Amino acid sequence: MNSFGRNFRINVFGESHGAIMGVTLDGVPPGIDINIEDFQEDIERRKPGKKGTTPRVESDQPRFVSGVFNGKTTGAPLTMLFENSNTRSEDYAKTREYYRPGHADFVASQKFKGFEDYRGGGHFSGRLTILIVCAGVIAKKILGLPIEAKLIEIAGESDLDKGLQKGIDAKDSVGGIVECRVNQIPVGWGEPFFDSVESVLAHAMFAIPAIKGVEFGAGFGATKMFGSEHNDNIIDEKGKTDTNNAGGIVGGITNGNEIVFRVAVKPTSSIGKTQETWNHETHQIGEFSVKGRHDLCIALRVPVVVEAMTAISLLDLKMQAGR
Amino acid sequence: MNSFGRNFRINVFGESHGAIMGVTLDGVPPGIDINIEDFQEDIERRKPGKKGTTPRVESDQPRFVSGVFNGKTTGAPLTMLFENSNTRSEDYAKTREYYRPGHADFVASQKFKGFEDYRGGGHFSGRLTILIVCAGVIAKKILGLPIEAKLIEIAGESDLDKGLQKGIDAKDSVGGIVECRVNQIPVGWGEPFFDSVESVLAHAMFAIPAIKGVEFGAGFGATKMFGSEHNDNIIDEKGKTDTNNAGGIVGGITNGNEIVFRVAVKPTSSIGKTQETWNHETHQIGEFSVKGRHDLCIALRVPVVVEAMTAISLLDLKMQAGR
Amino acid sequence: MNSFGRNFRINVFGESHGAIMGVTLDGVPPGIDINIEDFQEDIERRKPGKKGTTPRVESDQPRFVSGVFNGKTTGAPLTMLFENSNTRSEDYAKTREYYRPGHADFVASQKFKGFEDYRGGGHFSGRLTILIVCAGVIAKKILGLPIEAKLIEIAGESDLDKGLQKGIDAKDSVGGIVECRVNQIPVGWGEPFFDSVESVLAHAMFAIPAIKGVEFGAGFGATKMFGSEHNDNIIDEKGKTDTNNAGGIVGGITNGNEIVFRVAVKPTSSIGKTQETWNHETHQIGEFSVKGRHDLCIALRVPVVVEAMTAISLLDLKMQAGR
Amino acid sequence: MNSFGRNFRINVFGESHGAIMGVTLDGVPPGIDINIEDFQEDIERRKPGKKGTTPRVESDQPRFVSGVFNGKTTGAPLTMLFENSNTRSEDYAKTREYYRPGHADFVASQKFKGFEDYRGGGHFSGRLTILIVCAGVIAKKILGLPIEAKLIEIAGESDLDKGLQKGIDAKDSVGGIVECRVNQIPVGWGEPFFDSVESVLAHAMFAIPAIKGVEFGAGFGATKMFGSEHNDNIIDEKGKTDTNNAGGIVGGITNGNEIVFRVAVKPTSSIGKTQETWNHETHQIGEFSVKGRHDLCIALRVPVVVEAMTAISLLDLKMQAGR
C-alpha cells in the first residue's frame, strides 16, 4: 500500500508524466511554521541538472492545499501538490516494445495487467522522490534532530570525483554508498518485535528506488569481527559507548549514541549504451538503447531522500515511544 | 508493536524465563494439515547444543491451543504455546549491576523504566525465535515455495569450519552471513510505495536479533558495478533474465526470477572474556564477565529463522497481491 | 487518522474553504473504466440547492490527477481533486467569538490548539462528503452490487413532505432516518473479532457528519422481541431465511440475505434562530445566530453518502474475505 | 482480523470448547500493578449462573504468562490464558445436522469451508467475552476514568424484573438495552475522519456478540428533535453544555461532557422452544430444539463487556490524541 507510518503517516500519489503528483501527511501536530523557503535547500539538493545528473529541469515547488492555515499547520491532513511539466513523452513512447532492463516496466505490466501508466516509469519513477523530500522537510522540522546523509563512495571509490570519472570514461552509469548519521537521539525508541528501529528505517530505505542494501553500524563488517571487538562497552551513566559498532541501536532500540547506517545505491538503470533484451513485439531478443535524459549516477541525488525517509521514520517511532 | 503483517499476521508474546511464550497467527486459511512431525526438522535446525552453540536444551514443542480442530486449521486465530523450562535464573541474577555490552539490558531498562523482565534478556531474548520458526513452518506450508537459507560465511571465511575455529582459538564469539533463496516465485508481488518486497523482507529480517545488514541480489557489490553490468537483460517472454543482480526484485516487485538476499549476523554478544563496562551500582567502569551458557556463533542457528521470516513476509505479500 | 480500510483504503484531505480538497484511493484494481459521466448522478444527489438544502452551489467536478490513464484505472493510487469556489468567508468570520452549538468549533479549537482552519467548519465540514461520494462511485463500480439508501423518515414522519413541513413551519432544522439495503451479497464476508460487518459499516457510518445512531436488521426493535420471533429460520440450502431480523449479518458475517441497516441523522446544527451560548471574548453567555447558508434538513443529502461509505466498507471486507 | 487498536492493541484467540483461550495486550505501559483480586468483580459480573443466565459454571481465572513481572506490567505484550473446563460437547454434537437459527453456525461453515471448530459456537462463542472483560480491567486501570454500563431495559420494560418475567412466562428468550456513561473525559480525543469517537466505540461494540444497534446521546431520538432543541449550548469556558444530546461527542471529538451511549442486545438465540429450520442432511426443513444450557437474557451479562470495550477503545484514542 502506498502509505507508511502508524501515527505519523505519509501517503504518496502520482506518476512521472501525470498532471499532478502529491503527498499527504497525517498526524502533523498543529502550529508548525510552514514557509516555502524552508523547502528550497532540500529541493535543490535533490535536483537534477548538476554534473552526473539528468538535465531535465523539473518544477519542484510544492503547493500547499490542505492542513496549512495562516502559515502554520492546522493538525488536519497536510497535502502538497506538484505539477509535472517539461515531460517529453515522445522520449518514452518507443520503449513500449522493450521492457527496459533494470526498470520496473516488465513487472508493472504484469502486476497491473497492461493498464499501468508506463510513461517515464509512471508511479515507479524516481520523480516521486520529490514527494518524499518535501515530506521530509516537515518531518525534520517536527523532529528537530540533526540528520545528515552524504555520499561516501561512488563506483567503489571514496574519492567521489574519481568514481564519477570512471562512469564518464566508460560512458556508463555508476552506483554508490550513502551514509546517514543522526545525533541527539533519545534512548528508547523502537520496539523489540517487529518494529525495531532497524526494521522501520530499512523498510523506508528500501522504498527508495535503486536501494539494494542497508547496514547499521559495523553492518556486514561485523560478521568479520570477534564479539569482544564488536561489543560496545558502556562508559557512562547515560549509556554512552566507547565504540559504536551497533550504530546506535541495540535490541532494536535506540541506545542514545549516534545512529549510523549506510545504503547501497545501484548504478542508474537507464544508460546510453545499447543493451540486448526481449522485444515483446517481435518475441525475440533485440537491441535496445535509451534515448531519454538520464542520470550518470543517481546516487548523487539520493542523500537528501535518505535524510527525508529517516526523519519520517524516526518521527513515527518517536510518536510511538511517546504514547 | 509486537505484530507483523497486514493479511497474514503474526503476534508474539513471552519472555526468555517466563512461564509460557506463544505466537498467534491471524489470517491462516482453513483446512491446512497440522502435524507435530512437520515442525521437528525446523525446530531441530534452530536448536542449541550443537558445535558452536549453547548447551541449554530447550523444551521446544509447540502446543496448539486454538485454531486447529481435528488436525486441521480452522481459519480462526491459531496459537501455539511453548513452556519454558531448564531456565537457570541464577546465571543471570548478578548481571543486574552491569548492563551487558551488546545486549538490550540498558535500553530495556530505560524504555520500560526498570519494570522489564530482565532475566535472560526477557522479551528481547533470542529464545523467542522459536516462535518465529514454528510460525514459519505453517507459513511455508501455506506458501508452498522452495525457500532455502544457509550460512555462507563465518568470521569472514566461506569455509565455515575454518571460520568457527577462529572463534574457538580466540576464545571469542564470531558472526557470519546467511544467504536466502526463494524459487518459483510469481511475478507481481510487492508494492511500489512503501511495501516493496525488499522493504517487507528487510523489515522482518531486522526483527531477528543480531541482524545488522540486509542486501538483495548484488547488494553492496552493485555499487561497484557499471549499469551495463548490473542491468539484468530479459531473455524470454516470461521475464527470465540472463543475470540476477536484482535478486529477483525490480521496482520493489518480484520479477519471477530467484529471490536472493543476504543478512549479516553480528558475533554473539555474550562472551566468556572479561569486558569493561559501566557498573550502575558503583557508578564507574568495572570488569564484567558472562557466566551463563552462550553460543560461540549464533549465526549457526539463524538460517531457519531467516527462512521462517521470509515465508511469513512473502505469504503476506502474496495475500496482498492476490486480493 | 484520516484513512480507512485495510486493502481498499481511502484517504481524505482538505477543508471547506481551502483551495483544494482531495481523496486518494489505494488498492484500486487496474482496468476499471473511469468516465466523468459516471459520477454525475451521485454528485447531483448530494448537491445542495434543492428544497430543504442550502443554496450554496458548489463546484463538485472531480479532477483525476493520478491512477487513471487512457480512461482506465492503473492500479496505482487514484486521486481526485476538487476546487473550492463560491466560498463566502465573511459569513463565517464573525462566528469566531462564538463556538457554534452543535458544531465542532469548540473541540477543534481545543484539539488543534487554536491553529485549526475554522472557516466553514474546516476539515470537519460536511463539504468533505463530496470526497466520500466520488470515492463511493468507484467503489460501487468495483463491487458491482445493488446498494440503495433512502430517507425513510424526517422529523419522525414517514411522509417526508409532512416532516419537512414541520421544520419549515417552525423555522427550525429537522433530522431523519436513512435506511440502506444491499443485495446479492455473498455469504462469508466479515470477521468474528473485531472486524464484524456491523463493526466496519458502523465505523464508516459514524464518520459521516451528523450521524448519531446505527442499527442493523430489527436493531433496537430486537430488544422488544422474543428469541423465537427474532431468530431467522433458514429455509434453503443457500441459507435464505424466512425473516431477516438479523439484517443479513450473523456472528458478524454476511449470511447471504439482504443487508439492511438504518442510520439516525441529527437535525442540522446551523439554524436561523437565535441561540444562547458562550462568548469566549466576553466570557459570558451571549446571543448568537448563524447568518450563513445552511440546510433545513441535512438528512436529505445523506443517502448517497451512506451508499458510498457502504460500498467502500464492503469492498474492503470483500478483499479481506477473498484473500 | 482478530485484533483491535492502533497503539493499545488487543488480540484474542481461542474457541468455546478448545483447551485454552487467551488475550494479548500490546502497548501496555510498564509499571501497572496487576493483582488477581482486581479482576474478580468484573469476572463475577459477567458470570453465568444468576437468574436469567446459563448455569454453566466456567473457570474464569486468568493466568498471566507474559508481560507481568514481580506483580507489575513490564511493557512487553501481556498475555492472559484461560482454561476451558466443564464443556459438555455432547450437548452440541447433534446440532451439526442443523445450523442453529440466530447463530453463526451456517456462516462459519461457509466461510471456513467446514473446517471450523463448531463446538459451542467455536471462535464465535460468547464465551470469548471473558477475554474482553479481563483485558478491560487492565484498560480501565490505565485509563483511570469512571465508566459505568448498566442494563436499562429488558424486553422493552425499564422495570427489569417485569421484562425478565415476560421471558419466563413465555418460556422464551428476551433482549435489552445497555447504557454506558463515561465521566471526566478530556476534550479532544478522536479524529474527524475516519476515527471519530463514535466510529471507534461503535466498531468495538458491534464486535460484542448479540449487539445490533448503537446510538450516542439522543441517538435515534435526535431524528425527532428540532435543531434548536438538539443543539447543546455551551455555558462555560471549559465547554460544559446545558443539555447533552450529543452524548459528549461533537464532530467525532470528545467535548468534555459525559459520554453517553446505548447498545441494543438481541434476545438470546438459543431457546428451548422447537424451531423449524433447514436440515442440511435431509435437505429439507425440519424441527429443531436446543438441548444445551443457555441464557434467558444474555443482556444481563453484557454491561461489563460494554465497559471493557469502552475502556479499550478510549485508551487507544487517548494514546492517539496524546502523541
Which terms would index this structure?
five-stranded antiparallel beta sheet; homotetramer; globular; 323 residues; four-stranded antiparallel beta sheet; Chorismate synthase, AroC fold; alpha+beta
Please report the two chains with the greatest interface, counting residues with C-beta closer than 8 angstroms to the partner's C-beta: A-B, 105 and 105 residues
Query: Main sheet of chain A, how many strands, which sense, barrel?
Result: 5 strands, antiparallel
- Could you give the count of β-strands of chain A? 15
**Poorly predicted segments of chain A:** none
Number of domains of chain A: 1
Which fold name corresponds to the CATH topology of chain A?
A: Chorismate synthase, AroC fold
The CATH architecture of chain A can be given as 4-Layer Sandwich
Could you give the order of strands across the largest sheet of chain A? 1-2-3-7-4
- The average pLDDT value of chain A, as a whole number, equals 93
User: What's the order of the H and E elements of chain A?
Assistant: EEEHEEEEHHHEHEHEHEEEEEH
Oligomer: homotetramer
Query: What is the helix tally of chain A?
Result: 8
Q: What is the CATH superfamily classification of chain A?
A: Chorismate synthase AroC
CA-based shape of chain A: globular
| Beta-strand share of residues of chain A | 15-25%
Overall SS class of chain A: alpha+beta
What CATH first level of chain A would be assigned?
Answer: Alpha Beta
Q: Give the radius of gyration of chain A.
A: 21 Å
- What is the share of helical residues of chain A? 10-25%
- Through-space gap between termini of chain A: 25 Å
